């Protein structure tokens, strides 16, 4: 949300619509940040109260541990405080928006959506915003390719075709996250020790732009056909492949929505921002997978070793992993939301009708 654009729109006499790209529950947390900040000293690491004071006062949001908040609430460094201040200004502006549109769907966040619907401006879920071909049951290859990316994609379909159904672990930490070389080494060895085939989208700059060799020496030679490491790939195409059994993700919202919409169990490996909160909901509230570390909390910067990683992967293939029952229902709900008469379809229609009416009213004032 670009808070400065509000004043521009008001000067021009045009509607101002805020588009929120993170989950609705994170919108609620930032919307009620003043409540969190009133208790903030007791939430800080080292306050002596962590774990004793829970956050149970945000309308529509289940009880959270302070470490489940977006990381900016739990850090006192200048960068975190600067970003938190930007969010604060954005949400002051959002109260004056004509609409707030969210990339989510009502069945996924019903309590949060219902609580926010009592606010002004209207908050509407219009997602999941994915290329429509991936939300249809039939094959639609050309339509599926309509997604866009800034990075060159490697076609891994032939390698995936060679693997058994529900066997491959897909790993990606998105386009922004940086990971230490030591942690990448532990992830690599954890994948190896799991014994499962894996496809890893490993950006060349994931450690730093000056570091090119980020995997242990000889790792890929040792892996042979067990693993494929590529610089980037079409994530939707990978997640929709029948050989993919699980997704190790940083819990960025776009990645999580893709995993939910395509029915892929997730292993949460969050790093910063809303990823910790997203991981909490994925693992504990929606029960769509597990936290890799068993923790995955903001401020927990401990190295996650290979044994923890391999154990988490194996868990997906145990009875516990096979009993992740909510995936199929939410996959169906994501698709239903966008069909004619679905919740997101209705919300978009309501928005378009309201926008037309508001523009007509504004033009009438000009006349």
TrEMBL record:
Write down the Gene3D superfamilies for this protein, in alphabetical order: Glycogen Phosphorylase B (3.40.50.2000)
UniProt GO molecular function: quercetin 3-O-glucosyltransferase activity; quercetin 7-O-glucosyltransferase activity
Per its UniProt record, what InterPro entries does this chain match? Answer: UDP_glucos_trans, UDP_glycos_trans_CS
Work out whether the entry's keyword set contains S-adenosyl-L-methionine: no
Instruction: Enumerate the UniProt keywords alphabetically.
Output: Glycosyltransferase, Transferase
Q: Which PANTHER family match?
A: FLAVONOL 3-O-GLUCOSYLTRANSFERASE UGT76E12-RELATED (PTHR11926:SF1494), GLUCOSYL/GLUCURONOSYL TRANSFERASES (PTHR11926)
Q: Which protein family is it in?
A: Belongs to the UDP-glycosyltransferase family.
What is the name attached to this protein's record?
A: Uncharacterized protein
């Amino acid at each position: 949300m670009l808070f400065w654009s509000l004043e521009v729109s008001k000067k021009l006499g045009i509607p101002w619509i805020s588009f929120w790209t993170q989950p609705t529950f994170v919108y609620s947390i930032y919307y009620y940040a003043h409540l969190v900040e009133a208790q903030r000293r007791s939430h800080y690491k080292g306050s002596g109260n962590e774990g004793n004071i829970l956050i149970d006062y945000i309308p529509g949001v289940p009880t959270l541990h302070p470490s489940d908040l977006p990381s900016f609430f739990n850090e006192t460094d200048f960068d975190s405080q600067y970003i938190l201040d930007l969010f604060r200004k954005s949400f002051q502006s959002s109260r004056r928006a004509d609409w707030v549109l969210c990339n989510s769907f009502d069945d996924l966040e019903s309590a949060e959506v219902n609580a926010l619907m009592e606010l002004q401006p209207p908050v509407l879920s219009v997602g999941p915003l994915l290329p429509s071909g991936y939300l249809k049951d039939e094959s639609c290859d050309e339509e599926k390719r309509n997604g866009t990316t800034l990075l060159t994609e490697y076609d891994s379909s032939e390698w995936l075709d060679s693997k058994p159904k529900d066997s491959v672990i897909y790993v990606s930490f998105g386009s922004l996250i940086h990971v230490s070389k030591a942690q990448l080494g532990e992830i690599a060895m954890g994948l190896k020790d799991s014994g499962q085939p894996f496809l890893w989208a490993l950006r060349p700059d994931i450690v730093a732009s000056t570091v090119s060799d980020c995997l242990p020496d000889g790792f890929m030679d040792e892996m042979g056909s067990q693993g494929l490491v590529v610089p980037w790939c079409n994530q939707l195409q990978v997640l929709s492949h029948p050989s993919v059994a699980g997704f190790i993700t940083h819990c960025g919202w776009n990645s999580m929505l893709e995993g939910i919409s395509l029915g892929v169990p997730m292993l949460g490996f969050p790093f910063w921002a809303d990823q910790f909160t997203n991981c909490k909901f994925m693992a504990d509230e929606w029960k769509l997978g597990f936290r890799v570390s068993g923790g995955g909390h903001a401020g927990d910067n401990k190295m996650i070793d290979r044994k923890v990683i391999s154990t988490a992967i194996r868990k997906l293939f145990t009875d516990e992993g096979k009993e992740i029952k909510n995936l199929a229902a939410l996959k169906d709900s994501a698709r239903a939301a966008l069909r004619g008469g679905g919740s997101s379809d209705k919300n978009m229609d309501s928005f378009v009708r309201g926008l037309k009416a508001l523009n007509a009213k504004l033009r009438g004032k000009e006349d």
